[in-house]
């Protein structure tokens, strides 16, 4: 891996400013304190790489536009998706930094003892950051976020497939809309019931009546979040038909709206699962569109053999 200290200055500057922004906007005092602590450590990393850059006779030129864009991106992500997913995203970022710095240390034997020691310190700092973020993730308890994300992802895949299949058989947008909403309503109820039973079973580990009440409340909350998020996920595939789009236009609009939603939700699933969000989002789009195309083919066959024309 080619060592470019100017790149590391830019990356560490983004990290430092991101943690500072999150610290200044965070209402949770413990989390705000942690973010400020991480920002202070990142500022030392910036100083190390800036010194490294000057030792190589290079000029330190942080990209202000790129820096502002990335820092703002984290801030907007926090605004829309909450602290649980933001902490998880930062954790993934720290894992990437550890891998990159470890590769730099192994593949650049010409580093001076001082440079090696400094890089090893940074690697250890990043490992500490990851552990602190993991502990914080457990404290902020992202179960509700997981319920919402997975509920919406299920709805997008299932309802898109159903709507696509109906579009292969039916002509009138109203009938496709009704069919999609019926599938969505059924899924909302079944997902909510499934989430309640699953969470209730997990929480009921004690016969204590107080804990039983807490288990019931937790299961009810999980069911409500899952049902609500599933219901929201019903609309991207159905929306074009609600506005009376029909034929190939309606189908393409439904696919486009669903693909965008699937990519966003798939990326969030990737963040929660600790895998590459881009890869997970792309995979989710491929699965959803693939299922929809297969179901649409079944609908076309049904239309051909059954001569449905409504």
Description:
With 310 residues, the protein is mostly helical. It folds into two domains: 5-140, Ferritin (Up-down Bundle), CATH 1.20.1260; 143-306, no CATH class. It is built from nine helices and no strands. It has helices at residues 5-25, 29-55, 64-107, 113-140, 143-169, 173-203, 209-242, 247-273, 277-306. Helix 2 (29-55) runs antiparallel to helix 4. The longest helix is centred in the N-terminal third of the chain and has 44 residues, at 64-107. The model has no long low-confidence stretch (mean pLDDT 85).
Rg, Å, rounded: 25 Å
Please give the largest β-sheet.
none
Q: Give the CA-based shape.
A: elongated
Overall tally of structural domains: 2
Number of E-type strands: 0
Which sequence of SSEs, written as H and E, runs from N to C? Answer: HHHHHHHHH
Helical run tally? 9
Unreliable runs: none
Helical amount = over 70%
- Mean pLDDT value: 85
Strand content: under 5%
Task: Describe the SSE topology.
Elements: H1 5-25, H2 29-55, H3 64-107, H4 113-140, H5 143-169, H6 173-203, H7 209-242, H8 247-273, H9 277-306
Features:
310 residues, mainly alpha, Ferritin, 2 domains, 0% strand
Short note summarizing the structure:
The protein is mainly alpha-helical and 310 residues long. The protein contains 9 helices and no strands.
């Amino acid at each position: 891996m080619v060592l470019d200290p100017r790149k590391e200055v830019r990356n560490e500057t983004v990290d430092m400013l991101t943690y500072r922004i999150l610290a200044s906007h965070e209402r949770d005092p413990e989390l705000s304190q942690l973010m400020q602590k991480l920002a202070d450590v990142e500022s030392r990393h910036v100083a190390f790489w800036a010194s490294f850059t000057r030792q190589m006779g290079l000029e330190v030129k942080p990209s202000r536009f790129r820096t502002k864009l990335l820092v703002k991106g984290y801030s907007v992500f926090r605004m829309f998706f909450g602290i649980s997913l933001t902490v998880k995203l930062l954790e993934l970022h720290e894992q990437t930094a550890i891998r990159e710095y470890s590769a730099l240390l192994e593949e650049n034997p010409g580093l001076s003892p001082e440079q090696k020691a400094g890089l090893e310190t940074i690697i250890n700092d990043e490992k500490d950051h990851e552990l602190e973020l993991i502990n914080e993730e457990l404290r902020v308890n992202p179960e509700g976020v997981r319920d919402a994300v997975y509920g919406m992802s299920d709805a997008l895949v299932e309802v898109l497939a159903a709507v696509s299949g109906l579009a292969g058989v039916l002509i009138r947008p109203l009938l496709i809309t009704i069919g999609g909403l019926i599938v969505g309503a059924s899924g909302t109820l079944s997902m909510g019931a499934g989430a309640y039973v699953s969470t209730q079973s997990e929480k009921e580990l004690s016969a204590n009546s107080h804990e039983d009440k807490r288990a019931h409340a937790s299961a009810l909350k999980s069911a409500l979040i899952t049902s609500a998020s599933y219901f929201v996920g019903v609309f991207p595939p159905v929306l074009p038909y609600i506005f009376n789009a029909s034929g190939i236009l309606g189908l393409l609009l439904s696919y486009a709206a669903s693909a965008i939603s699937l990519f966003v939700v798939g990326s969030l699933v990737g963040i929660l699962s600790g895998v590459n969000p881009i890869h997970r989002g792309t995979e989710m789009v491929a699965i959803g569109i693939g299922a929809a195309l297969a179901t649409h083919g079944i609908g076309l066959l049904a239309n051909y053999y059954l001569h449905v024309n409504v």
